[in-house]
Amino acid sequence: MAGRRARTGRGWDASPSRTGDATDPPRPRRGRRGAEQQQSDEPQSPPRDESEVAREICLRQLAVRPRTRAELADALAKRGISEEVSAEVLDRYDEVGIIDDAAFARAWVSSRHTGRGLARRALANELRRKGVDGEVATEALGELDEETEAATARALVDRKLRTARGEPDAVFRRLVGMLARKGYPPGVAIRAVKDALAAQSAEAAEFAEQIDADALADAEGDLERDNRPLD
């Protein structure tokens, strides 16, 4: 049996062919045209509804911070949403309370006055730029009374005086200018700085005693009106 040849059949101990079984059917070759045909046969997503896109834009904007209706309308216009769809979506948000310009204005006034020390005039300008209606803004600003505004102005001056350097007249001008940039009327700003200087030191008090707050406020008011741009 030593010279017996090895079995070469297709039995259980046969080795697999390296080139594949000749009886296997040939695999079809997929060309470029076939791949394109397969892609074209795949179901395509339907075009998204414009209202759905508009709602998603609004919700993304509102997730960052509260927005006015005008701000949202501007965001929708920049994304190409039609005026009709924009109005429909924003009207619905008004109905359910997602948009509330009155609540926005009240929160804005409270936050910006407390956090930044802004006066009513500066706050009115900010609300106007955000598209808040004039009557709505006036109502929100009415919650900030004159006493609160004067107290905030004095607190701002006291804080700045801790690190202020220079002669009293130079310090006076800088602090009045600071309050003016925050929207305080001349009378409120001048009185706040004068009172704060009077309580700071003898030298500052002597300078403050010479200030005629009413006359200076009137002069500043006249100058402000003269420089106001014509409508």
Explain this structure.
With 231 residues, the protein is mostly helical. 64% of the residues lie in helices and 0% in strands. It has twelve helices and no strands. It has helices at 32-41, 50-64, 69-78, 83-96, 101-116, 120-129, 134-141, 146-161, 168-181, 186-198, 202-209, 213-226. Helix 6 packs antiparallel against helix 7 and helix 8 crosses helix 10. The longest helix has 16 residues, at 101-116. It is elongated, with a radius of gyration of 38 Å.
* Poorly predicted runs of 5 or more residues: 8-16
H/E topology pattern:
HHHHHHHHHHHH
The percentage of residues in β strands lies in under 5%
In terms of quaternary structure, the protein is single chain
Whole-number average pLDDT?
A: 82
Distance between the ends:
120 Å
The rounded Rg comes to 38 Å
Percent of residues in helical segments?
Answer: 55-70%
| Helix vs. strand class | mainly alpha
Number of DSSP E strands: 0
Large-scale geometry:
elongated
Q: Counting H and I runs of at least 4 residues, what is the number of helices?
A: 12
**Largest sheet, if any?**
none
List the helices and strands and how they pair.
Elements: H1 32-41, H2 50-64, H3 69-78, H4 83-96, H5 101-116, H6 120-129, H7 134-141, H8 146-161, H9 168-181, H10 186-198, H11 202-209, H12 213-226
Helix pairs in contact: 2-4, 3-4, 5-7, 6-7, 8-10, 9-10, 10-11, 10-12
